[in-house]
């Protein structure tokens, strides 16, 4: 009876069943993100204005990158074990608390560069727990048919934030000081934390373990499971190596954009805001196009086209002369437009084909492997950019992105990355069915022989 009732359930009611709780969380996170991005922009420009050093900015980016690379797999294993709602609550609250502390240091006149490093580390640490919990929860809260659209919306949200928060941050820095901006960051965190008190976030059922490992597995074993999972997924492993190469060149370039604006173009905070906004406008339009278009049938091909386009956009920035600031904005727009075309389908692949109870580990291991080369790039980028200029890094990042997008399209393991994991899941399902059939046979044999045994006993 229950099955028949669910089948005739109105479409609008089915939509509300998942949309209301999910978007309650999603909208709260979006509002909180405004304060976080404004606060982050203010801190980066404070470092740029105070030090004027590419090495200082690169170090700040390095500090913000390390938690995801080093602690990401641990965070993913813990997210798969813990209540995902609780993880979101603690992560958001911790970041808000440290932001309040930094505002207090600025208010008392004791703010130093190393304090910024600490808050960036904590923000990144809270962010990796938050990201893993939210991504892993999305696949349980949203129907599979809507995952790629939601992924496009996520990318568009980040684009909108990139449009409005840099100019807003620059404007607020003209009328407010760092303590006031940090207060805004803390207050907007309430929008992210509040809905968690009354919205249900489902938990996946943890898979049963064998008798030999029936005890609760260690966190290290869970991490190993995530790593082995990706190692056996050949196409995804190759993609992660590609991502590491990209992040080792592209991330340092973008982290040094404030120095590019200040030294190469002779701009100030408002010009930096325009650069970030051009990137953000591109992301928004790219996310809208992805949501309407849906991408190619093979999601990975959509991502590879995006890589080629992003590489071209980054190269435009690399070759922009100091007198043509508008040309750099065009390059940033193109690169931003291609960002959701790359990442949207990639995230949808993982959410679609990876089992829910292991997604936290898979997402964070993916994040760690993809960002593995970024710390090395950051460590080298600062001193090199101080000597040769930031545009050298934009050139390296553009060439690397363009070539990888072209070459990967001819690698069979990459092109068939979705089919590989689906095939593995089908094999695993066949194995389970075979085991069930064998168990049924054993039961039937027992039922046939049992009367004879009883007869003998009598």
Any key phrases for this structure?
mainly alpha, Growth Hormone, Chain: A, 18 helices
Notes on the protein architecture:
α2 runs antiparallel to α7, α5 (113-141) crosses α14 and α9 runs antiparallel to α16 (391-408). The chain has one domain: MFS general substrate transporter like domains (Growth Hormone, Chain: A), CATH 1.20.1250. The two termini are 46 Å apart. The radius of gyration is 25 Å and the shape is globular. The protein has 18 helices and no strands. The longest helix is centred in the N-terminal third of the chain and has 41 residues, at 11-51. By secondary structure, the chain is an all-alpha fold. It has helices at 2-7, 11-51, 54-81, 84-107, 113-141, 147-175, 178-193, 219-232, 234-255, 257-264, 269-293, 299-318, 325-353, 359-370, 374-388, 391-408, 412-415, 417-457.
């Amino acid at each position: 009876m229950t099955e028949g009732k669910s089948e005739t359930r109105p479409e609008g009611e089915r939509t509300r069943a998942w949309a209301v709780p999910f978007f309650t969380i999603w909208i709260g996170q979006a509002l909180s993100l405004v304060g976080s991005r404004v606060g982050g922009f203010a801190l980066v420009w404070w470092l740029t204005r105070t030090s004027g050093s590419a090495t200082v900015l690169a170090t700040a980016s390095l500090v913000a990158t390390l938690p995801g690379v080093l602690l990401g797999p641990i965070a993913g294993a813990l997210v798969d074990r813990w209540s995902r709602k609780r993880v979101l609550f603690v992560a958001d609250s911790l970041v808000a608390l440290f932001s309040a502390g930094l505002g207090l240091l600025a208010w008392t006149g004791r703010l130093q560069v190393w304090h910024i490093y600490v808050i960036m580390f904590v923000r990144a640490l809270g962010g990796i727990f938050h990201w893993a919990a939210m991504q892993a929860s999305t696949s349980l809260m949203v129907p599979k048919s809507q995952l790629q659209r939601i992924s496009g919306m996520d990318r568009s949200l980040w684009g909108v934030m990139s449009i409005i928060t840099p100019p807003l941050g620059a404007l607020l820095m003209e009328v407010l000081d760092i303590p006031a901006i940090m207060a805004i960051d803390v207050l907007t965190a309430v929008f992210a934390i509040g809905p968690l008190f009354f919205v249900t976030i489902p938990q996946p059922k943890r898979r049963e373990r064998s008798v030999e490992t029936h005890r609760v597995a260690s966190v290290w074993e869970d991490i190993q499971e995530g790593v082995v999972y990706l190692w056996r997924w050949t196409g995804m492993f190759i993609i992660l190596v590609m991502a590491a190469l990209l992040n080792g060149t592209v991330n340092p370039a973008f982290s040094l954009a404030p120095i590019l604006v200040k030294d190469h173009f002779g701009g100030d905070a408002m010009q930096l805001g325009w650069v970030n906004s051009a990137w953000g406008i591109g992301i928004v339009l790219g996310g809208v196009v992805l949501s309407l278009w849906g991408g190619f049938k093979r999601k990975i091909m959509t991502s590879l086209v995006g890589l080629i386009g992003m590489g071209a956009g980054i190269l435009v920035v690399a070759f922009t002369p100091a007198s043509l600031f508008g040309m750099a904005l065009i390059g940033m727009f193109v690169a931003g437009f291609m960002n959701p075309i790359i990442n949207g389908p990639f995230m949808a692949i993982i959410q679609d084909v990876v089992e829910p109870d292991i997604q936290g580990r898979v997402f964070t291991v993916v994040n760690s492997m993809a960002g593995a080369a970024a710390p090395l790039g950051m460590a080298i980028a600062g001193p090199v950019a101080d000597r040769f200029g930031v545009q050298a890094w934009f050139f390296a990042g553009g060439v690397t992105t363009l070539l990888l997008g072209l070459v990967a399209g001819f690698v069979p393991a990459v092109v068939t990355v979705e089919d590989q994991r689906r095939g593995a899941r089908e094999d695993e399902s066949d194995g389970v069915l075979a085991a069930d059939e064998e168990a049924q046979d054993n039961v039937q044999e027992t039922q046939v022989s049992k009367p004879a045994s009883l007869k003998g006993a009598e």
